[in-house]
Amino acid sequence: EAGRLLFAAETDFLKGVVAMDGLPAPDRIEVCFAGRSNVGKSSLINALTGRKGLARASNTPGRTQEINFFTTTDGPYLVDLPGYGYANAPVKVVEKWQRLLKSYLSGRQNLRRAFVLIDARHGVKPVDDEIMSLLDQSAVTFQAVLTKADKVKEKDRENILAQVRGALSKHPAAFPELVLTSSDKGLGIETLRAIIATLD
Ligand code: GDP
């Protein structure tokens, strides 16, 4: 219920940030969303906020790597981190993004939790593990959110969950509880809203 209240409020795109000095004032708490490109991050943010097309439906490696801020009325900032793991992204672009990400994660005092999105079909990949290590180093509590659960067969579900739990157990900053979601089917969306609504 609390979750519904929070996100029934208006959500709006505030700004895209390419450098630390562009960050909005930390005058409210925020949560961020990280994940490999194509993991379903835009779809999840759209489902959470109930606004189709709010987050870019697709991200391309050629596009500027921005940290996108969304405002919610009386709620936290929702922060969309650029997708990682593009096979063909130029080294310079990757390095710039990693520097910005490190600065953001280690220096943002109002950041309450990171949600690391994991494709439920693939489990935790090495690049996901790297982000998790960065979150450990930055002392940012993170929670794994499995996406596209509708694409996983019932019989495969336990294996994937075990793989993800095993990977999380190696990360001190990991929150033990997983959230299984499907933006397409609306699965886990209320749960995630409620989790965000409890943070302060
Ligand atoms: P992003 O690159 O992480 O922002 O990923 P997108 O949100 O653009 O999604 C990538 C692709 O996965 C798109 O084709 C989406 O339609 C699809 N997708 C996203 N979420 C789901 C889901 O919950 N279920 C299914 N079946 N497909 C999804």
Please give the structural blueprint.
Blueprint: H1 2-8, E1 11-17, E2 30-35, H2 41-49, E3 67-72, E4 77-80, H3 91-107, E5 111-119, H4 126-137, E6 142-147, H5 154-168, E7 179-180, H6 189-198
Parallel strand pairs: 2-4, 2-5, 5-6, 6-7
Antiparallel strand pairs: 1-3, 3-4
Bound molecules: guanosine-5'-diphosphate (GDP).
The site of guanosine-5'-diphosphate has 19 residues, from helix 2.
Descriptive account of the structure:
With 200 residues, this protein is of the alpha/beta class. It has a single domain (2-198), classed as Rossmann fold, CATH 3.40.50. The protein is 35% helix and 20% strand. The chain is built from six helices and seven strands. The protein has helices at 2-8, 41-49, 91-107, 126-137, 154-168, 189-198, and strands at 11-17, 30-35, 67-72, 77-80, 111-119, 142-147, 179-180. It has a seven-stranded mixed β-sheet, sandwiched between helices. Helix 1 packs across helix 6 (189-198). The longest helix is centred in the middle third of the chain and has 17 residues, at 91-107. Bound molecules: guanosine-5'-diphosphate (GDP). Residues 35, 37-43, 57-59, 83, 147-148, 150-151, 182-184 line the site of guanosine-5'-diphosphate.
Could you name the ranges where pLDDT drops below 50 across 5 or more consecutive residues?
A: none
CATH superfamily: P-loop containing nucleotide triphosphate hydrolases
Secondary structure: number of strands = 7
Molecular shape: globular
Here the CATH topology equals: Rossmann fold
- Named at the architecture level, the CATH assignment is 3-Layer(aba) Sandwich
For the residues shown, what is the average pLDDT?
Answer: 89
End-to-end distance: 17 Å
Lateral arrangement of strands in the main beta sheet: 1-3-4-2-5-6-7
Overall structural domain count: 1
Rg for CA atoms: 16 Å
CATH domain class name: Alpha Beta
Structural class designation: alpha/beta
Give the helices and strands as they follow along the chain.
HEEHEEHEHEHEH
The helix count comes to 6
In helices, the fraction of residues equals 25-40%
| β-sheet strand percentage | 15-25%
Bound ligands:
guanosine-5'-diphosphate
Largest sheet: 7 strands, mixed
